[in-house]
Design goal:
The complex is a heterodimer. Chain A has eleven helices and eleven strands. Chain A is an alpha/beta fold. In chain A, the strands form three sheets. In chain A, strands 7, 8, 9, 10 and 11 form a five-stranded mixed beta sheet that branches. Chain A has a four-stranded parallel beta sheet with strand order 4-3-5-6, sandwiched between helices. By secondary structure, chain B is mainly alpha-helical. Chain B is globular. Classes of the chains: A alpha/beta, B mainly alpha. The interface between A and B is medium-sized, with 32 and 34 residues.
Chain lengths: 290, 336
């Protein structure tokens, strides 16, 4: 009995020695980092992670960002520490971050870890992983679970109400979303594709082709989409592509182009999903066959 | 006799210049960083400044010099081996092999969410190193040995094209790896830490010693293969070892700092334009000047758009390319 008592005492001591608010986070590389206190100095090396931190209303904890992060406007005054793939290690170290949030780039992660800087790697490619990343970052920042869950539910609810606001005529139209003019398209399994499905349109690129397949232009001609969205800023005459003038979307001028800012919102897997959905919805309202 | 004395003093002068330049560049390398120019003396007591000096700036400065030295040495060996002033260290398929290694490891990293343990432990740099060596091995096999310079060159070109095509294939199938591959191919020293320095210095010392002891074979080769054989040299043995040295030196540099253009090509040219020497001296000075070239370019890359930085490979390509162009026209004018 006495022995049992001392064991429980040891456990009690251990429990008390863990500071209040200590959290352990396992990132998408499977590496677990523990934080005694919620980090107060954060560097983000990926625009979608920067946006996640800011959507969680913790923007003020960012002390540095990568050169592609440009939302919200308040972060534009922060020091830029290079790009996610070519960061300036020294500039990061000088800012003494409590944690650095990065996308998948093992060289950056390894180098920063070897300097004793805590790094969390996120591999966000769809709604699920975006939600997971948001949950983990919220946990890291010491935010209540409930609030994060509500925030996510709110995001999904907003997308649903945008979908409900669409005219009946846009339902079931066949859409091709071009990511780059090589051409790479956004498939059903991509982040962009998930938003399209929630808007109840049909993606001509099935999930079986992968998230962002490189397509044969012939495939697009054969699939004959009713509407084309160009997710990059380019001023290209699609009817000049061989055979493309036969595509319904091209012959009927149902092509949406976006501004650079809109293209950023569309291409980044961040919690700004409702904004992306609204941009796509505006396109559908303007260009759907009546 | 007079000429020999003249040459001797020329070499001496070059030695002083090289030593002083190297020292100045190392001091500059310690001083130039994201915050612009910081004096390294008096030493700061701030722990983060100390960390930046000793764990970031010093290893990357040293790594830039070491990688440049390795490429300079490899370039001098390649130009001697192939008796071709256009030969560069990447000739035997090591560059495309390393790129393929990077592409493959990235594909594996991106298709498995929780990375396989061995892959994570090896890291991209080791796989790039293995890829570089594999590229050379395939070239030698396809050339059916290393006896024929021409066949070796041709096989190197073919392997380069094919491996590059395979890398492109992976990039097309997995477009998400494209930016990372591009970053690798532009070359950067910003990820180099002490472990990279240790690896490169061990390889550099070993390669220098071996290449130096075989420099007579390179001299003999300049007279033509038949003459070299008639001089009683074990040409094939020397050639085989030198190819191994070339592959190791290039692989070590490429895997740590990516594809750095032109340093390996320009360093031996620069030495030859300054002094007329036998290979033993050429190898040493190409090594030293290769180090100076890359370190100088790296400091520029850090300073030009600070606090961000340029990939150093971009700068070496522009600077090295312009220098070779100038050398080419200067040589033509002299010939006229």
């Amino acid at each position: 009995m006495k022995r049992f008592g001392s064991v429980s005492l040891v456990f009690l001591a251990l429990f008390l020695s863990l500071p209040v608010g200590a959290v352990e986070i396992t990132d998408d590389l499977g590496v677990t980092s523990s934080f005694a206190n919620p980090p107060q100095r954060i560097i983000s090396l990926l625009p979608s992670l920067t946006e996640t931190v800011c959507v969680l209303k913790q923007c003020q904890k960012l002390v540095g960002v990568d050169r592609y992060s440009n939302w919200p406007a308040s972060i534009k005054s922060l020091p830029i520490v290079g790009g996610g793939l070519d960061p300036n290690i020294e500039a990061i170290a000088i800012l003494k971050p409590d944690v650095v949030l990065v996308g998948k780039s093992s060289r950056t992660t390894d180098r920063l870890r070897s300097l004793g800087i805590k790094v969390l790697t996120f591999d966000v490619r769809d709604y699920r992983s975006a939600q997971l990343a948001m949950t983990k970052i919220a946990l890291l920042l010491g935010l209540p679970d409930k609030d994060t869950e509500l925030l996510w539910q709110n995001i999904i609810a907003q997308v649903s109400s945008i979908a409900a606001s669409l005219p009946k005529s846009s339902q079931g139209i066949r859409v091709y979303f071009e990511v780059s003019n090589t051409p790479f398209g956004a498939g059903e399994s991509s982040f962009i594709g998930e938003t399209l499905s929630r808007l109840k349109v049909i993606n001509i690129i099935p999930a079986s082709l992968g998230p962002f397949p490189k397509l044969n232009p012939e495939f697009i001609v054969r699939e004959n989409p009713n509407l084309i969205m160009l997710g990059y800023t380019a001023n290209e005459n699609l009817s000049a592509r061989p055979g493309w003038n036969k595509i319904q979307a091209v012959s009927q001028q149902r092509i949406c182009t976006f501004t650079a800012e809109e293209a950023d919102v569309l291409s980044r897997p961040s919690p700004r999903i409702p904004e992306a959905a609204q941009i796509m919805a505006n396109c559908l309202i303007a260009k759907s066959p009546k | 006799m007079v000429q020999q004395h003249f040459q001797h003093s020329q070499i001496q002068r070059l030695t002083y210049v090289v030593i002083i330049l190297t020292l100045v560049l190392f001091l500059l390398g310690m001083s130039v960083g994201s915050t612009g120019f910081t004096m390294i003396w008096p030493p700061s007591s701030d722990s983060s400044v100390l960390q930046i000096m000793w764990d970031i700036r010093l290893p990357r400065t040293l790594a830039a010099w070491l990688a440049g030295a390795l490429l300079g040495l490899a370039g001098a060996i390649a130009q001697g081996l192939f008796r071709n002033p256009l030969a560069d260290p990447y000739l035997l398929g090591s560059a495309s092999g390393a790129t393929l290694g990077v592409a493959l490891s990235l594909v594996m990293l991106s298709t498995t969410l929780f990375t396989e343990n061995w892959l994570q432990r090896l890291g991209i740099t080791s796989i790039a190193f293995i890829g570089a060596l594999a590229g050379v091995v395939i070239t030698v096999i396809l050339a059916r040995g290393f006896q024929h310079t021409f066949r070796l060159l041709l096989a190197g070109v073919i392997v380069g094209v094919i491996l590059a095509a395979i890398s492109s294939f992976f990039a097309i199938m997995h477009p998400e790896i494209l930016p990372v591959m591009q970053a690798f191919m532009l070359g950067t020293t910003s990820f180099a830490g002490w472990s990279a320095c240790l690896l490169m210095s061990v390889v550099l010392i070993a390669c220098c010693l071996v290449a130096w002891s075989l420099s007579k074979a390179l001299d003999a080769l300049t007279l033509g293969e038949l003459t070299a054989i008639s001089l009683g040299l074990r040409l094939n043995f020397a050639r085989g070892i030198l190819i191994v040295v070339l592959a190791l030196a290039t692989g070590a540099a490429v895997s740590q700092v990516g594809l750095i253009a032109f340093v390996g090509l320009a360093a031996p040219h620069l030495v030859r334009s300054l002094i007329k020497v036998v290979h033993r001296t050429l190898l040493i000075y190409s090594t030293l000047i290769g180090g100076i070239l890359l370190l100088g370019a790296d400091i520029l890359a850090r300073a030009l758009i600070a606090p961000q930085e340029l990939p150093v490979g971009l700068l070496t390509a522009i600077l090295g390319g312009s220098y070779l162009l100038w050398l080419m026209h200067a040589g033509q004018n002299r010939a006229k």
